[in-house]
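Supplementary Text 2. Reproducibility record for the structural model of the 295-residue chain.

All settings were left at their defaults, and a single model was retained for analysis rather than an ensemble. We include the record here because the model underlies the residue-level annotations in Supplementary Table 4.
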Amino acid sequence: GKKNKSKDMSKDESAEDESDEEESKDEEETKEGKKIPSKSTRPITLKNEMLVDNELFSITAKSIDEDSEYGYTVYLLIENKSPDKTYTFNIQKGEVNGVEVNLYTVIFVNPQKKANTSVIIDDLKEYGIEEYTDIELTVDVTEGKYTYDKPYVMSESVHIYPYGKENATEFVYEAKAGDQVLVDNEYVTVIYTGDNKENELGYSINLYIVNKTDKDITVSGDDMSINGYMAEAYYDQHISAGKISLSGIQWYGETFKENDMDESKINDIEFSLDIYPEDDAEAEHFFNGMLKFAP
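Retained model, structure tokens:
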């Protein structure tokens, strides 16, 4: 929730003289010129915390900026202890409070060298997650520079607790009246949790997906139509074993213009979902079929 500024400026003239630095720490200018608090309600306590320290490398979480120009950012220091091997560190899987997030950090570090890098984390506020209390990152390490096809030298799961481990929480989804269960079998649950007609890019729907299996899965959407018109959108989601995903399918404004459709009068959405073990598309799929519903 957005909170109003607690200080009443008209009553406190001296508030005008607060330094810009202090001002920018607490708040962010919105486009309309109104000020809204842009940080979570309590201060982040994490500073220079060693996440992993083994014979090959160490990783330290240096700090967190909730409000960097790219969004929520975790700053890491990686040290390669090997006397003669370069390692590439892939951080492309992670969770916040148990909810899957998409990460894109890849960095190589030469022997006996250190490197600073950052991990940018999805904005989950629209799903009601204001405070990131438990950030889990999977760090896959390969030998050499940018070696995607090589086997992992090591794969480490590390937890970052911005407010301390004792304050870690797990997201629990609360069902709402308009929810529609689209898939529910022994492997996965997929629930439509609402749409966004005011979406500035066009129109989107939100999905809540539970991976009940002990395998990482891929959830891939295709063959999409709205009100009987083909309306493609990209949807490809990774969900780690036993984790959950909050994600959206985004259709852009042009789709509605070219099909002469009103985004506020959508009464039929269809798409296929294919859900299968991430590393084995040949294995039996956990679900593969068309879904049809009225938002």
